[in-house]
Amino acid sequence: MAVNNHTERSARDLEFFGKITASISHELNNVVSIIDQVGGLLEDYVAMMKSGYTPNVDQLEKVSQKIQMQTGRGVDIIRNLNKFAHSVDDPLKEFDLNDVLSNLCTICQRLAGLKRVTLKEDFAETELMVTNNPFLVQEIIFLALQWAFDQAGDDGEVRLSTSMDRDIPVVEIVTKTTEEQSRSFLDGEVLAEILQATEIESETFQDNTEKRGVRFKFQSIRANDSPTCQKCDTRAIL
Amino acid sequence: MSQYRILLVDDEQELVSTLVERLGFRDIEAEAVTNGHDAVELMNKEHFDVLVADLKMPGLSGQELIRIVKERHPAVKIILITGHGGTPEGKPPEFNDVLEVLLKPFDINALLEAIHRLMEKGDED
Fold this sequence. Notes:
The structure holds two protein chains of two kinds. Chain A is α+β, with helices and mostly antiparallel strands. Chain A contains six helices and seven strands. A five-stranded parallel beta sheet of chain B has the order 2-1-3-4-5, sandwiched between helices. In chain B, helix 2 runs parallel beside helix 3 (62-72). The longest helix of chain B is centred in the C-terminal third of the chain and has 17 residues, at 108-124.
């Protein structure tokens, strides 16, 4: 698998990376646009002051608050991007699933909003340490979230949760869907390939609210388990 | 006040509220909403000369909003604002001649020029 589908996999991984960075850059652009206009508003005040108009304290305070708020928002977005970008640094490492997926969930909020879907997260209170490829793990969950957003429909809801089931970290994505659609998604060629590379088990399920979804069970991969790509001398999990 | 009435639609509340204030300083009356559905509703009640809409919004997208507005209020001029770096995605080709497109972030003067261009064009028609 690693040798034959190497190019296709690289293109698929790049597509995922591109979608995430495009979404983040749109959001960052909005932040810059707001700061730009608020700065312009300040310029307007200065120009008007030269003609005798005096802005009141409230107006100036509002400008300051808006700049501070958007700067803080921008810093958060950059931190999320930075964390995501560094997830390709180590193809195999021990990490906390909650930490990585919480970051991904924050990034995906904008995409959920564009689809008019509410994305809710319900993470285990304790760390869920796994040894795997953090980039591919995010790619799996991203594909599942995209699928779930489409299933949820306008004003629908998607819930991403993590838990520990008999010492195995579990991720569940629940929405309004059917058993058939869930099965069809999990059996899709692209997803099946990444699941195989990361040794993650998947299944469909129905929760106690009769909503359905997909569940991923994480095994920790041992460092020397995965095969090597003969073209680039990297392991298959890369 | 200018004779023009502008409706700004963008899900970034801070952006549109600041633009409303800045346009007001330039004697242009503007109102703002944060989604396409509210824009359609407001346009059914009040008259606007120019619609300034973000292309990517939750729910009704800018492109869908344009189609509705062109159908129900064909005289309204439209300016699309987008953060997309390349060719504006989703710009409906059939409306090419009635659209102005501004890339975010944009200067207030670029917005004013686009408004005046569209209104002058409308006067010639």
